[in-house]
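Task 17 of the worksheet. Students: predict the tertiary structure of the chain below and write it out as structure tokens. Keep your answer in the requested format; marks are given for formatting as well as content.
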Amino acid sequence: MQLAATGAGLDADGTLLARILAGDTQAFSELMRKYNRRLYRVARSILRDDAEAEDALQDAYLQVYRALPAFRGDAALATWLTRIVMNAALARRRKAGRLAEVISLGGDLARDDDEHEHERAAAPAEEAAAQPEHSAARAEARRLIEARIDELPAAFRTVFMLRALEELNVEETAATLGIPEATVRSRYFRARAMLRAALASEIDNAFEDAFRFDGARCDRIVHGVMGGLGTP
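Model answer:
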């Protein structure tokens, strides 16, 4: 769901805002559904916890609903919403005493391809049989990627969420976070490098376990051969 600040997008937001301010609660529901994914990912990048991110998002939406009459459009609606969610997530983080990792989304940090997928043709019956295994593999890959994203430094994590997952461009990300475009580029480059290094390490470790030949498989081969030789 790309939410670029196009003229059509701005008109649609303006229509929603007008309906909300006129007392149409269904319009606010539509607004939430339009921006839920981006805003959840931003909250999740700060809190690193699904339930906490959901709670922060709900808190933010309540703030948004109360503050909408004062919205003057000085920033794009998506930017305004994102900043409210960020503040709600940071407030929840502080309230919970999670201060082990210092976050400075607005300042520079001192430590500041595409993979090709191969499709294979299979008979319908084979595809049906492979579906559960394929789904499990995708779920495991997603879990691994999410875990490694969680390990990124907080400022890098938020930039990565907006650039890689939400597909915002550099200018949009910089405006949303209130940081220079050069900082966005730097943090995104570093985040990708750290993520690739972490995933490469996981893959290297997995190679050791690939096509394991011990336990039941080994026993089965030995017994089969020995049986063919007539040896008990």
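Marker's comment: The chain has two domains: 7-95, 130-228. The domain at 7-95 is CATH 1.10.1740.10 (Rna Polymerase Sigma Factor; Chain: A).
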